Amino acid sequence: MPKNRNAFSSLAAWRRRALSRAVHRGWRWVQESGAVTAEHPGRLRFGRIGAGTRLAFPQGTVFGESWIELGAHCVIGEQVTLTAGLMPGLDLGSEPILTLGDGVVLGRGSHVVADTKVTIGSDTYCGPYVYITSTNHSYDDPHEPVGRQWPRMEPVAIGPGCWIGTGAVILPGATLGRNAVVAAGAVVRGEVPDHAVVAGAPARVVRSWDPEKGWQPPLRTPAPVPIPSGVTPEQLLALAEPGETSGPSGD
Q1: Residue 33, exposed/middle/buried by CB under 10 A (0-12, 13-18, 19+)?
Q2: Pick from 100, 144, 164, 223: CA 20 to 30 A from residue 242's CA?
Q3: pLDDT tens-digit profile of 142-156?
């Protein structure tokens, strides 16, 4: 290949790398600038937003924020919808409609639609694309399009410490107890007891905690061993290196 062609190819590759770096730096700046916090709420005026809470940019649909209260140290992922009321501009009264406790995590693309009261307890973690709603379409009139019929609304209460897996749906009237686990893709209605694992559509209890017998049915894997205090990230990486073992050296 001629030298000038090699030089042109190298220059083009350098330009692509430089452009890629510039785009990524610019996007990180946009994400940082567009994030919503208590100190930098932007156009959003929540009823309350606690210290350390952050809504990643870009945000999803957000309205009725005057009736939305967010606790401290919540993590709201990108494209998360948070709405209070059927539509923007309504007067919903003096009480909050949507309340998140401290330390709540809502994964990317999740939706929390609160036309009546929805409460998510502290330290509840939701995976991506979870859908929580207090409203369901009605279809009582067979002659009227479903979308034009007045919906049914029931409060939703999710206890503290829950884990809700990717793509799960929490329907109107659902009540989840403390430390409940909802499997990915489950559709939950009705009551879920404390310390229960539910799965399926509709969701049913597949495992629960008994104070005397422990988990029933028993867990199939042993509990994870916590990382000992004082272990550094470098030591963990060394343990993960291929060929590293704790067995005899063979000397």
Answers
A1: exposed
A2: 223
A3: 999 998 999 999 999
Told to judge if 111 belongs to the known catalytic residues of this protein, a careful annotator would answer no
Residue 124's Cβ-count burial label (10 Å; 0-12, 13-18, 19+) is: buried
- Name which of 119, 196, 134 is nearest 163 in CA terms: 196
pTM of the model: 0.83
pLDDT, tens digit, for every residue of 169-215? 999 999 999 999 999 999 999 999 999 999 999 999 999 999 999 99
CA distances, 138 to each of 48, 55, 152, 171 (Å): 32, 32, 6, 13
What is the gyration radius of the CA atoms in the chain, in angstroms?
24
- Please enumerate in sequence order all residues whose Cβ is within 8 A of that of 209, keeping only pairs 6 or more positions apart, or say none: 194, 195, 196, 215, 216
Instruction: Write down the catalytic residue from 40, 111, 137, 143.
Output: 137
Cα of 247 vs its chain's centroid, Å: 41
